[in-house]
Amino acid sequence: MATGFIASLGGQPQVITLTLDLLLQRGEVIDFVWVLFPAGNPRYQEAHRQLQRAFAREPYQHIQYQARPLNDSRGRPLRDLREPQDVESIWEEVRGLIQQAKADGHRLHISLSGGRRLLALMLFSAAMLYGSLADRVWHIYTPPAVLQVVRDGARLHVPPEAGVRLLAVPFTPWGAFFPGLKPVLGLSPAQVFALQQWQQDEETRQRCAWVWQRLTPRRREVLRALVEHPTRQAAADALGLGLSTIDTHREAILKACRLAWPDEQVDLRFVRRVFRGWLLAEGKG
């Protein structure tokens, strides 16, 4: 089991290194570090480059460093989290990242200290949904005098007597206690609203039922897996199928959905959005 450190990154790269130093001082063994930041923000890109250089030297040479630059809902480099559609897109990415890390058996340390506050909140929400009792969420306290010295990455490390402290953030991994909550807790705000309004949308219910009736039992399983998992590969792994088999079933599902919604741009994202609510409402999830 690998242990990872996941953090949101802003323009202050020392937030990452100071937190990591404190974890290492506690005797934690960190195998990899992932940092998330808006890809189109030049200041955040510079902070990432500083970290790249830091991880090429001691004491981090044994740790795998990986940046996770975030794009907007159209796939363009994201400068900031300002638009609702971008928030939903990034939430899907953050949630999928944590979900996959836990599915791979990793133990996680998650830092909420750096970067955009909304991104840190998403990491915290994902930890509550997919985390385990072995995971930890952290914040750091940096004395004002030290802040002046390290600001903007002027110094990436400080001695222990500087007074920087690692603070554990209390969190309850609800998904670990109540696995049945995961499909509901994983919904975006828009999807929760759609589920609440589902009984009023009789036409959509009928179209979903029409598609469902035309799918084989195996394709129904594939549809559920594609809705529940963030990637096609994750769905394939969950069902014990090859990716090519999943893709064959996916094309058949998309074909049926395009017949049911001839005026819509039907792709996998559309299918997930529509059927997630329907599967939950009909008790088929």
Rg, alpha carbons: 21 Å
The appropriate CATH architecture of the largest domain is 3-Layer(aba) Sandwich
Proportion of residues in helical segments: 40-55%
Biggest β-sheet, characterized?
Answer: 6 strands, mixed
Provide the succession of SSEs: EHEHEHEHEHEHHHHHHHH
The CATH topology assignment of the largest domain is Rossmann fold
Q: What overall form do the CA principal axes indicate?
A: elongated
Mean pLDDT across the residues is 89
Q: Would you count the extended β strands for me?
A: 6
The largest beta-sheet arranges its strands as: 3-2-1-4-5-6
The DSSP helix count reads 13
Are there runs of 5+ residues with pLDDT below 50, and where? Answer: none
Number of domains: 2
Structural class: alpha/beta
**CATH-wise, what's the superfamily of the largest domain?**
Hypothetical protein VC1899 like domain (Restriction endonuclease-like)
Describe this structure in words.
By secondary structure, the chain is of the alpha/beta class. It has 2 domains: 3-177, 3-Layer(aba) Sandwich (Rossmann fold); 187-282, Response regulator (Rossmann fold, 3-Layer(aba) Sandwich), CATH 3.40.50. 52% of the residues lie in helices and 12% in strands. The chain is built from 13 helices and 6 strands. It has helices at residues 14-25, 42-54, 84-103, 117-130, 144-150, 174-177, 182-185, 189-196, 202-213, 217-228, 232-239, 243-260, 268-282, and strands at residues 3-8, 32-38, 64-70, 107-111, 136-141, 165-168. The protein has a 6-stranded mixed beta sheet, sandwiched between helices. Helix 2 (42-54) links the parallel strand 2 and strand 3.
